C-alpha cells in the first residue's frame, strides 16, 4: 500500500539509498559546474563517513517505519526479463552503447544489473569497465517521485545528470508489486511516452503534501510552471481543492522548496527567513491554484508564505533557520538547516551541524537529541515502544551527523521518499 496525506503523519514505509560505489567513482571533473560531466555535488565526499551518517538516519527512521532501499526495489523489479530488456534498451540508446557493451548488460542477472545501473561500471576495483557515469544523486530518493494521496508522480529531472534516475524509478513504479495498487499520474506517463519532456520537469523536493486536499509546490530551478499547472489539474480530479505554488528564486542554494521550508508538526514549520522578507532579494511569492470551469483558476496571493498557508487552514509558527540571524541563516540554509523530515507530528530529523537552528528548535519546545540520545531515551523512558514515545506529547528533533551528506546539497527530507504515512492524528503533538 502507498498513501501519503500529509508531511507529518506517522511514517510507516520509506525508501532510501545509502551512499556507495557510485560516490567512490566520482572524480574532480564531476564536481566542476563548468564541466559537461558535472554531477551536481559540491565536493568529493568521504564515502565511509557518509555511509555512517546515512546509517544514523536509517536507525532513526527504523524506529517507526519499514526502511526500504531503492536498489532492492530495483533488483526485484529487474527479475522480470522484459523489464531488464526495456531498461537496457533505453540506456543503450541514451548512452549510444555499441553491441558488445549492450551484450555485457544483457548477460547480467537482476542482482548484478541493479548496482551496475547505479554505479555505471561492470566488474570491481581499478579494473572495472565504465559504461556510463555514476548517479550519486540517487541517495536523494525524495526527487524520484512524490506521493499525494494515492497518486504517484514520477519525477522528471531538470538536470541531465539525473536522467537515468527516472528510467530506474519507472522500472520500479511500473513493475514492483509494492506499487501495483496505485495510480501513476497521467502527466507522468505522458512525459515518459515522449522520452522526457524538458519543459515539464518536476522533482519531489518541490512537492509537499499538506493534507488530502492541499498541496504546496515550488516553482523552482528544478520544477517548472508548465508541469505544476498540468499536475494541479490532475490533483483536482483526485480530490484536492487547493495547490499553493511558491515562486522560488532560481538558484542552487534553494534548488527545491524543501531547502527553505519543511513542516514539523500541526502548528510549526522550519523556514529560511529570507523568503519571508518583504522586498528582499529572496522573498517568495505565492500563487493559489483552484479548480475552475476552464481547468485551473490562478490567483496571486497578497502576503507571505505563512499568511498563504494560514489562508488555507495551516496556521504555523516558524522556526527560523539559523535562528533568524542574517549570517547564521544563510550559512545553515546552505547546509540544509530548514530541511527536516517528520517521523510523526513533532518528531523530526535534521542535521546536527546546524547549531543555531537547533537552538531555535529548543526555543519553541523541541528536545534536540543526537541519535544515541534518542535511542537511549526510547529504551529508558518508553521501554523501546515507539507508540508510547509518539503518544507522550513530547517534541523531539533528532539530529544526525551530516558533514559529508550535506556536500551533495540535501538534508534528511531529501534523503527519504515516504510511501506510507498514517493520517496525522489530531491528538498528537
Euclidean distance between termini CA atoms:
26 Å
Can you tell me the residue ranges where pLDDT is under 50 for at least 5 consecutive residues? none
Domain count, please report it.
1
Which range best describes the helical content: under 10%, 10-25%, 25-40%, 40-55%, 55-70% or over 70%? Answer: 25-40%
The CATH topology corresponds to L-arginine/glycine Amidinotransferase, Chain A
CATH architecture: 5-stranded Propeller
Task: Provide a descriptive summary of the structure in words.
The protein has 429 residues and is of the alpha/beta class. It has a single domain, classed as L-arginine/glycine Amidinotransferase, Chain A, CATH 3.75.10. It has helices at residues 21-24, 47-61, 70-77, 81-94, 99-106, 110-119, 163-175, 186-193, 225-236, 305-311, 326-334, 355-363, 371-382, 386-390, and strands at 11-16, 66-69, 121-122, 129-130, 145-148, 151-154, 183-184, 207-209, 214-219, 242-247, 261-263, 268-271, 285-292, 295-301, 317-320, 341-344, 347-351, 367-370, 396-400, 417-421. The strands form 6 sheets. A 5-stranded mixed sheet has the order 8-9-10-13-14, sandwiched between helices. Helix 3 (70-77) packs across helix 6 (110-119), helix 3 (70-77) crosses helix 7 (163-175) and helix 4 (81-94) packs antiparallel against helix 5. It is globular and about 60 Å long.
Amino acid at each position: 500500500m502507498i498513501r501519503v496525506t500529509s508531511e507529518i503523519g506517522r511514517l510507516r514505509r520509506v525508501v532510501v539509498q545509502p551512499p556507495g560505489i557510485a560516490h567512490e567513482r566520482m572524480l574532480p571533473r564531476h564536481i566542476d559546474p563548468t564541466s559537461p560531466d558535472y554531477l551536481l555535488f559540491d565536493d568529493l565526499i568521504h564515502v565511509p563517513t557518509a555511509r555512517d551518517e546515512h546509517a544514523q538516519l536509517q536507525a532513526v527512521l527504523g524506529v517507526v517505519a519499514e526502511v526500504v532501499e531503492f536498489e532492492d526495489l530495483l533488483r526485484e523489479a529487474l527479475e522480470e526479463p522484459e523489464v531488464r530488456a526495456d531498461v537496457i534498451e533505453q540506456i543503450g540508446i541514451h548512452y549510444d552503447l555499441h553491441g558488445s557493451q549492450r551484450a555485457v548488460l544483457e548477460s547480467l542477472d537482476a542482482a548484478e544489473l541493479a548496482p551496475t545501473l547505479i554505479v555505471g561500471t561492470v566488474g570491481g576495483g581499478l579494473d572495472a569497465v565504465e559504461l556510463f557515469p555514476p548517479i550519486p544523486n540517487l541517495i536523494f530518493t525524495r526527487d524520484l517521485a512524490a506521493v499525494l494521496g494515492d497518486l504517484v508522480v514520477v519525477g522528471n529531472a531538470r538536470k541531465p545528470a539525473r536522467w537515468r534516475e527516472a528510467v530506474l524509478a519507472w522500472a520500479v513504479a511500473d513493475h514492483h508489486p509494492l506499487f501495483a495498487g496505485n495510480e501513476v499520474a497521467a502527466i507522468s506517463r505522458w512525459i515518459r511516452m515522449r522520452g522526457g519532456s524538458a519543459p515539464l520537469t518536476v522533482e519531489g523536493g518541490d512537492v509537499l503534501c499538506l493534507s488530502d486536499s492541499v498541496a504546496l509546490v515550488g516553482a523552482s530551478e528544478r520544477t517548472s510552471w508548465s508541469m505544476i499547472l498540468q499536475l494541479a489539474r490532475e490533483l483536482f480530479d483526485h480530490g484536492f481543492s487547493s495547490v499553493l505554488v511558491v515562486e522560488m528564486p532560481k538558484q542552487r542554494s534553494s534548488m527545491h522548496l524543501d531547502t527553505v521550508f519543511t513542516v514539523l508538526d500541526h502548528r510549526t514549520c522550519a523556514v529560511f527567513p529570507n523568503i519571508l522578507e518583504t522586498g528582499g532579494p529572496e522573498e517568495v511569492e505565492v500563487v493559489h491554484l483552484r479548480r475552475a470551469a476552464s481547468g485551473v483558476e490562478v490567483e496571486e496571493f497578497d502576503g507571505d508564505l505563512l499568511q498563504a498557508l494560514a489562508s488555507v487552514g495551516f496556521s504555523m509558527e516558524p522556526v527560523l533557520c539559523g535562528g533568524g540571524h542574517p549570517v547564521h541563516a544563510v550559512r545553515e540554509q546552505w547546509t540544509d538547516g530548514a530541511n527536516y523530515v517528520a517521523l510523526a507530528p513533532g518528531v523530526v530529523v535534521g542535521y546536527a551541524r546546524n547549531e543555531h537552528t537547533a537552538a531555535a528548535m529548543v526555543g519553541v519546545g523541541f528536545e534536540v537529541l543526537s541519535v544515541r540520545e534518542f535511542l537511549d531515551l526510547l529504551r529508558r523512558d518508553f521501554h523501546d515502544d515507539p507508540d508510547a514515545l509518539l503518544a507522550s506529547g513530547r517534541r523531539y528533533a533528532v539530529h544526525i551527523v551530516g558533514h559529508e551528506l550535506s556536500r551533495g546539497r540535501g538534508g534528511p527530507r531529501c534523503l527519504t521518499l515516504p510511501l506510507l504515512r498514517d493520517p496525522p492524528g489530531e491528538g498528537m503533538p
